[in-house]
Amino acid sequence: MATAQVPGTAAAGSDVHELASFGYKQELDRSLGFFSSFAAGFSYISILTGVFELFGFGFLNAGPAVWWSWIVVFIGQMCVGLCFAELAGQFPLAGSVYQWSKRIGGDAVSWMTGWILIIGSIVTVAAVAVAWQVVLPQVSTKLQFIGGAANAGTYSTPDGAKNALILGAILVVFATIINMLGVKVMARLNNFGVIAELIGSSILVVLLVFHFHRGPGIVTNTLGTGAGHSWGYLGAFLIGGIMSAYVMYGFDTAGTLAEETNDPRRAAPPAILRALATAAFIGALLILFALMSVKNIHDKNIGLLGLPYIVKQALGNTLGNIFLIDSAVAITVCTLAVCTACIRMLFSMARDGRLPGGSSIARVSGRAKVPIVPALLVGVLSLALLAVNIANQSAFLTLTSVAIIMFYLPYLAVTGSMFVNRLRGKWPRPDHGPYFNMGRWGLVVNFVAVVYGSVIAFEIAWPRAAVYGTKWYFKFGAYEFVGASFIVGCLYYFLVQTRKPPEVLAEHRAEVQMPAIAAPVGDAYP
Q1: For residues 151 and 391, what is the distance between their CA atoms, to the nearest angstrom?
Q2: How far apart are alpha carbons 382 and 214 in whole angstroms?
Q3: Are 243 and 56 within 8 A, CB to CB?
């Protein structure tokens, strides 16, 4: 782990100077090292959160062969991650995707990117927080406050859904409080959680080896899930693959903490790629070995209770519960990381005057240098979203799918803008410097990232009863929610934002404007 530089050293001074070149003064607490940067991205992806929460859904809809969706999604997201790594080295700023799109796509693109991502992040906080329901009641039925043991470990029943929202609300409150205590407290807790997840998931993968009941060829078994689909097994695979798409996003968080990271131009790019690659590697082994370890591959409890059921069946209750607790820790720090990223996005947009009440939202308070108002906003809005969905068990997969889409669309806006700049010969720029650069492979990788993002967003949003339920307002939930968010965002942007100059609020401007180290591309602004 790289040691954190103390403010006032040459490294810290250089980081402050670079930040000033973008027009901002140093306000956040720049105290994070290389491992903390990696941990932020890894905890957001959190394989022990996503895989434990959605393994059952993937298996139920696509059988063991759903494993291949993990490989497909990894390849697509790695292409996106490589694009992000180039941007993180050039624009080491809080707000990552918003700031990147501002500099390569312009004002309108950046506004919609940031707006959609903020809403998506709040939805994600709620979607991740309810994952406690998948593991905690299976550790102890005393944590199933509503409905008794029959509903433990699931939110597919009304009582299970209600209990999920109670546990989720507790977790949201906890994450909000931690974020209000400062980035150092958040990072220490997050680092601990990531270390626990890395060790726990690695040990779990090794232990599952001793409980194999079949060979790796199981990943070619579809269990007949393609029957009844107009596209055969491909239709089933596209539905089950939502499991993989849900897990592998949020790796840009390593970039969104750039203004709190020492030497972020060098720390953020590899942190983004390592977080994604590490999570993908461990996750692929975990899913594969779990499928090889299950006693009866036709057991209906696999689709109902998912990976926690397989783990406890293979390792026994005591050891299984230990790993479920480790998963609960991973869910905790994942929720914490999502809140942290959303808070920085709000702060970054507000100090640019891009949000109503910008001065209040962007105010950094106390010795911990925390944006308090954004932390409270994320917590309160996430709780409100949970409250709206009480007893609607169909809402959970809708929440999950909406959260995915509202990340893929901003990601697509960034990779799409970058691709256009590549075609125009504006990226990479002549002054790119010694930072991460894909070189001659950049155009191909960027193209794959754009195609992948377009296809996956459309595929997830498709109104299927298997994903969203039979009620029309859930079935078309992705289109309704994303469409309403887009319309509101457009109205606000054209009625309000276009009437004022795109400039940094006076209280957040660098006192001495430094020469631009990484000048904006095209008609974007600093």
Answers
A1: 13
A2: 43
A3: no
Task: Compute how many other C-beta atoms are within 10 angstroms of the C-beta atom of residue 301.
Answer: 14
Distance CA 526, CA 15 (A): 17
Q: What is the pLDDT of residues 315-350, one digit of tens each?
A: 998 998 998 899 999 999 999 999 999 999 999 999
Q: Please name the residue that has the structure tokens 């109503």.
A: 356
Give me the domains of the chain, ranges plus CATH numbers. Answer: 39-499 (1.20.1740.10)
pTM, two decimals, is 0.90
| 389 in Cβ contact with 127 (< 8 Å) | no
d(CA 4, CA 261): 8
8 Å CB contact between 325 and 337:
no
Q: Which two tokens stand for residue 217?
A: 């060829």
Separation between Cα atoms, residue 225 and residue 298, nearest integer Å: 12
* Helix (H) or strand (E) run with residue 415 in it: helix 395-423
DSSP string across 275-302 = HHHHHHHHHHHHHHHHHHH-S-TT-HHH
Residue found by looking up tokens 């595929």 in the block? 459
User: For the stretch 398-434, what's the b/e string if a residue is b when 16 or more beta carbons lie within 10 angstroms of its beta carbon?
Assistant: bbbbbbbbbbbbbbbbbbbbbbbbbeeeebbeeeeee
Please state the φ and ψ torsions of residue 509, each to the nearest 5 degrees. -75, 150
- Return the half-sphere exposure (C-beta side, CA atoms, 13 A cut-off) of residue 139: 16
User: Helices 47-62 & 307-315, crossing angle to 10 degrees?
Assistant: 100
Torsion of CA 11, 15, 21, 26, to 10 degrees: -130
Distance CA 383, CA 390 (A): 11
Beta bridge partners of 509: 24
> How far from chain centre, in Å, is Cα 150?
31
DSSP state of 149: G
Dist. CA 70–CA 519, nearest whole Å: 37
Tell me the C-alpha to C-alpha distance, in Å, between residue 20 and each of 168, 261, 484: 40, 15, 37
Residues, the chain: 526
The string of DSSP letters for 103-138 reads: HHH-HHHHHHHHHHHHHHHHHHHHHHHTTHHHHHHH
Mean pLDDT is highest, among 274-278, 318-322, 514-518, for 274-278
What distance in Å separates the CA atoms of residue 454 and residue 247, rounded to the nearest whole number? Answer: 18
- Looking at residue 519, its pLDDT comes to 41
Contacts of 279 (CB under 8 A, 6+ apart): 42, 45, 46, 47, 247, 248, 251
**Cis upstream peptide for 216 (omega within 30°):** no
Encode pLDDT of 476-490 as tens digits: 878 888 899 999 999
Q: List CB contacts of 369: < 8 A, sequence separation 6 or more.
A: 27, 28, 29, 182, 183
Which residues share a beta bridge with 370?
A: 365
Q: Are 349 and 118 in contact (CB under 8 A)?
A: yes
Please tell me the distance from the alpha carbon of residue 468 to that of residue 481, in angstroms, as a whole number: 13
State the angle between helix axes of 372-388 and 317-351 in degrees (0 to 180), rounded to the nearest 10: 120
DSSP run (H or E) holding 408: helix 395-423
